[in-house]
Design goal:
With 361 residues, this protein is of the alpha+beta class. It folds into two domains: 169 residues, Rossmann fold (3-Layer(aba) Sandwich), CATH 3.40.50; 175 residues, RecF/RecN/SMC, N-terminal domain (Glutathione S-transferase Yfyf (Class Pi), Chain A, domain 2, Up-down Bundle). 40% of the residues lie in helices and 24% in strands. It has nine helices and 16 strands. Helix 3 crosses helix 4, helix 5 crosses helix 6 and helix 5 packs across helix 8. The longest helix is centred in the middle third of the chain and has 40 residues. It is globular. The protein starts with a strand and ends with a strand.
Amino acid sequence: MLINNITLSNFRNYSKAEANFSENLNLIIGKNGQGKTNLIEAIYMLSLGRSFRTNKDKEMMMFDALNTYISSEVTAMGRNYKIEIKLGKDIKKAVKINSIPIEKLTDLLGIINIVIFSPEDLKLVREGPKERRGFMDREISQLRPNYYSLIHKYQKILVQRNNLLKNTKIDENLLDVYDEQLAIVSQKIMAYRKEFIDNITPIASANHYRISSGKEKLNIKYLPNITASSEIDFDSSYIFNKFKTSRAEDMRRRTTTSGPHKDDIGIYLGDMDLRNFGSQGQKRSAAISLKLSEIQLIFEEKNEYPVVLLDDIFSELDISRQKMLIDSLSEIQTFVTTTEAIDFNKEVKTYLIENAKVSLL
């Protein structure tokens, strides 16, 4: 998969910008605050149609701009696509693929797969469950576009249920309706998450074994908030009963206390839970192993490597981890942002970002 070029108009601090990219390694250099991460954000938008930094599209619009525009020609699965994304203060986000407007955002998902490494991703192990759920949601959405719709639907029902729980007098018949709807969607979300973790675990374990020079064994487990005595293949009626069981507590606390929005991932070295123990180096290595496994999983599913974005992470890694990471991406189109030039000992196309201008060095 390749991002061949990009054109920006009124995106963040870019009034106008254009760039053509190498199919191998692209190094983006610039001082802090010049717009390196903004460019990476625009590239990432081509995959999911949304940012990895904010849930508010208007934050990506240049101040006082009426419209923001992103356009790119990409290559995936032997086909060429032109992706256009338009944001406006008073209009709904509009996406076109080969000049044809799409009806829903899920039509964009899966065309071009992108895996991003950011300093926040390196905190994946030591941060809270919310970050690990986000990791699952982003990656599953790229592989299973229907999952994105399920998450959106779940969140909508959850908000309605929580609003009902805040009422002085609660209509339990309506609560039954919400619980039934939540149970159906929850079962599907949990099945997707279990499949993802089952698939990614052996790949992440192999990556970590290599990174640690055979010294450590990494294991990943899906930790659903709603559990059963058997495998997680229970039906929606079981989940519905779980919601009913927690109803008294939910009414007391006026919020939904159980469900997939409380799920987590367990990350272990042997018997040690890395979420709570282990060195910072071990946690970073585990995070890298997980991110690399995303790349391999996409390759196994699509027989093509995704595009990889490395946003300002080299300052967080020692020399050995930097080299290991770049060597792992030798066959993949990669974008690297740094504040200064790095000698990767391989062919690199280098860009300078200065005052929101992109120039080729």
